[in-house]
Amino acid sequence: MANSNTVSDREHVQATQELSKAVANKIRYLQTLATAIDNKDDRLVYQLIDGDRYSEQIVQAKHGSADTDNENLVSDIAAKLGQYLSANLLAYLAETYPFFYFEQIGLGKFQFYFGNWWDRRLFGELDVIKVQFIFDSTEYEKLRRAFELEGQSKRLNSDKISMLSSQADQLQALIDSQEQRDAEKEKTRLQLKKLAQEKVMPWEASKAKEAKQQLINQLSNLTEQDEKAQDAYRLIKDNEKKVLELSKEDTLIGYEKQSIIAKFGSFDAFEARCESLYRDYIADLIATNGRKNTNE
Amino acid sequence: MSREYEKPTEVFKPHNSADVEPIENATTLSTSGRLISYNDQLKDSLENGYNFTKLLDQLITTTSTEELFEAAQALSTYQLDTAYLTFPQQYSQSDFYLIFINRLLALHDRERVILQSSDRYNELYHEFPGINSAGYFIFKLENTVQGGAYYTEKTTGEALFYLNFEKHVLRFNSRAVTQLLLVEYHEKISQDAIKGFENYLLDIGNFLKEDYGFDVDFTLLDPSNSAVYQLADPNLPNSIIDRLFVEAANGGRMLELGENSSPILKLDSGTVIELFEQHNYEDDSDLGWGIKVYDQQHKIGWFDVLLRYEFLRSWYLENLNTLEIQSDALYFN
């Protein structure tokens, strides 16, 4: 029993040492982070809070200095970290993406609009910790598609608009041809009347019936068109509204395209820059000595 | 210039006058009393006529703006004829408004409008160089108790402004100004000539304000940066702003968001237009939409940008029901 007690004591000592070491490790981690924050060394902060991403992107190593367990220590203060890190990051983004307008929606949380024009589109959110844009997929897709259509010298909604316009033309024609239809109806009715008054020989009965049916069909066809014409004004109004919406969207996307081309030259270049945003930003932090100037 | 009446001068017959107001109890007067009374009436009438000529002298020749106003105000309501004496050749009261405008501008060395006389219609009228091919202007007296007169384009009947000497009030009519200068004249008259005419209208307002302390509402002509052009329809649907956005883009301009997220449009030489919702914070009520036009020189008003920028003009006219700038409803409806 005494023996096992001794072993147990030894084990206990070891356990104490290990724990103490583990706690010290965590303290060291937190201490390093605290110092980095005090020194406004954002680069180091990024390295400390997501070592995997840092080594993958910056050191280009698969297995880097990731310290996932320690990183978990700060996962519940991610919002506060984001709020702290956003100051320098937003300053950087304002230079790199002058057409994105950021808006704070919570602690360390930001969404952004594309442009400062009327009815600009809400384009996505910013992940401050990961230094990446989370684009609104619908809006982003529209922009991508608009660039794609450029080759055909078309705008995103060109086809829809021309379809709606030709629809409107047809509707207008339907309204304009009312008089002509009225005359035709009158003529058809007279023919029907005449047909009814004519004496029909038994052997001609089926032919007469057929002629009558044809006239009736013609008449109902004309009435149907009348009904459509009745509705045409409303449809044309609806049509105009839709065309306005689509033209507005084309105009918005036109401005977005101009902004991207002015800054990046092409959509591909823009996408590539978004892809390398984390890397570029860390490099910028190194080059500008942590962008401390913007803070002071 | 003079007015010929077909009727000859009326001759007063002392014993045959139903329209003469008895001054004293005439029936009780003796014959000599009647003669004296008649003579007094004539003297008064002559005095009245003489007084008129003095005022007319003053209107035509004075170099003092104060005296000019006095004369115009008096003449615009002057009853020259009396029951005892009528003048066959007369100007109408509205003509004195026209003369006043010319003289006022002349005293400021800004007379550009030409005072003409029409033999055919026996009236005076204003002709403005450059737009005289399209019409001419007269004052139309407001015959209700309100008084005053409307400066009216004769062929279209558009009343550009209302002028009241008694109340010291001048009100421009945004609807008529729009209709006449931006629709009627748009195809016929050069932009420079229309601009010149606008300056003439502004001069009238400014001189009345500066010289006589008139209360002037320029509506859409007001070039001041603090001017708020109030839209007649308090509800401006977004679709109308959308339309401006699209048309501005077609016109090579961008409708941007201003500081308060209200739409702004930057034009040439630092001119900026802002559309904004007005809010009364005291009683927390919405006051509808307004337009502001900024420029460094305080020289450009809503009218000027409509005149100059075709895409704004067509947008404004196409949505006039909603966008029309309010005028004083007391005088225009």
Give an overview of the whole structure.
The complex is a heterodimer of chains A (296) and B (333). With 296 residues, chain A is an alpha+beta fold. Among the domains of chain A are: 2-76, no CATH class; 152-262. Helix content of chain A is 72%, strand content 8%. Chain A has helices at residues 2-38, 42-49, 51-59, 68-71, 78-96, 137-149, 158-176, 178-197, 205-264, 267-275, 277-287, 292-295; strands at 100-106, 109-114, 121-127, 132-135. Chain A has a four-stranded antiparallel beta sheet with strand order 1-2-3-4. In chain A, a hairpin with a 2-residue loop joins strand 1 (100-106) and strand 2 (109-114). In chain A, helix 1 (2-38) packs antiparallel against helix 2. Chain A starts with a helix and ends with a helix. The model of chain A has no long low-confidence stretch (mean pLDDT 89). Chain B has helices at residues 31-61, 65-75, 93-107, 174-188, 191-212, 238-250, 302-308, 310-318, 320-323; strands at residues 114-118, 123-127, 137-141, 149-153, 159-164, 169-172, 215-217, 229-230, 255-257, 263-266, 272-280, 285-294. In chain B, helix 2 (65-75) packs antiparallel against helix 3. Helix content of chain B is 38%, strand content 18%. In chain B, strand 4 (149-153) and strand 5 form a beta hairpin. Chain B has nine helices and twelve strands. Chain B is an alpha+beta fold and 333 residues long. The longest helix of chain B is centred in the first third of the chain and has 31 residues, at 31-61. Among the domains of chain B are: 98-217, no CATH class; 229-323, TATA-Binding Protein. The A-B interface holds A 116-120, 241, 244-245, 247-248, 251, 254-255 and B 238-239, 241-246, 249, 254-257, 263.
